[in-house]
Structures are given as C-alpha cells and as structure tokens.
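A reminder before we start the practical. When you read a complex entry, don't treat the lines as separate problems. The point of joint prediction is that each chain is placed relative to the others, so the output describes one connected object in space. Small molecules and nucleic acid strands, if listed, are placed in the same frame. In the example below there are two entries. Take a minute to note the order of the lines before looking further.
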Amino acid sequence: MNTTERVLYWIGIIVLIVAIIGTSKQTSELEKKESSTSATQTGGNQ
Amino acid sequence: MNPKVERVVYIVVILVLSVYLIFLGKKQTEIQRNIPITAQELYDKLSSPKLKVQIIDVRELTSDDDVGGYEDSRVPGAIPFPGCDESKMTSESLQEALKRINPYAYTVIVSTNGNKEIFEKCAQKFKNVQNLQGGMAAWQEAGLPDESGEYVPPKAGGGGGCL
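Here is the predicted structure of the whole assembly.
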C-alpha cells in the first residue's frame, strides 16, 4: 500500500467524520426543537 | 502491517462510518417529520434559490370556508393533491400535477389548518416531509404572498425557490 492510497483513505475517513459530527449536531438541535414543540402542544391542549 | 490487511481495515472503517452516517440521516428525517414548519420558515426556504421545496396542497380546489380552497389562495408553487387521494385527480391539470409529485423530494404538506391526521395520512407517501403549522390559515394570517387560479405546471429550466 503506497502513501497516496493511504492519504486518500484518510481523507475519506476525515470527510465522513466531519459529516457525522455535522449531522449529529443538527439531529440534537432537531431533538431539542421536537421536545419543545411537543411541550408547547401539550401545554396548549391543557 | 500487511498492506492487504491495512487496506481491509481502512475499507471496514469507511463502511462503518458510512453506515452510521446513513443511520443519522434517517433519524434526522424521522425527527424532522414530527416538527411542523412555521409559515415564516417556509417562506424563508422558498425565498432561497439554493433550497428546493415541494409544496403539496391537500385542500379541495374550492371551498366556502374563510381560508378558501386551492384555487382561491395557495402558497406559491404549491401542487394540488386534494385529500392526498389519487382517485380525486381526475381533470387534465390535476393529472399533470400528479406527474410532477416527487416522493423523494423535501416536501411540505399544506392543509387548511395544519390538521395532523391529514398530514400523517399524506406523509406516508413522502420520504422527507413536514407539516405547515397552522396550514394555509397561518400563511394567510402572516400576510405572506399567495397565488390563485388553476394549477399551471412550472416552465422547464426554472430554478429552486418559487418567490
């Protein structure tokens, strides 16, 4: 396995990790928004 | 390390990360489905040429209530799909509209008042979907621009964003 191939694999891994971190952040923000939305709806129904 | 083993390790790591990313994406889509979009948020998305939003209007074409039907007042660029029922798509323009509905595009469902039952029924037909909070009534209350008249398919070559 030469250095170029190794570098390409690492670039792929880093890109995937960055995408996972970004998606995780968005998901947790959405989860917060979802819980606040459902809390508002529950409050509104009372 | 043996080059073959090293290559296999890299490929396995990339595969595991890819599967996890797909899982996160699906989870995000599921969560998004439970969060309604507000009229202002939808307007902002429509104003952006980078974002492509498919708007499906599930109201009847005409209605006597205050909000009106699809042909009385609608979100610009909305596609009519009364009751999310294909059997109601009888006229030529509705058949044309049905052909343009893409189940894989990011979709916002517009009903009269943001009815959750209608949304749940319609959401089954789309992969990435949100409900317009308060429906067309909220859009009108916010004083956002609307369209009226019979559905006219967009011209070829049009970009994203409808405003």
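Discuss with your neighbour: Chain A is about 95% helix and 0% strand. What might explain this?
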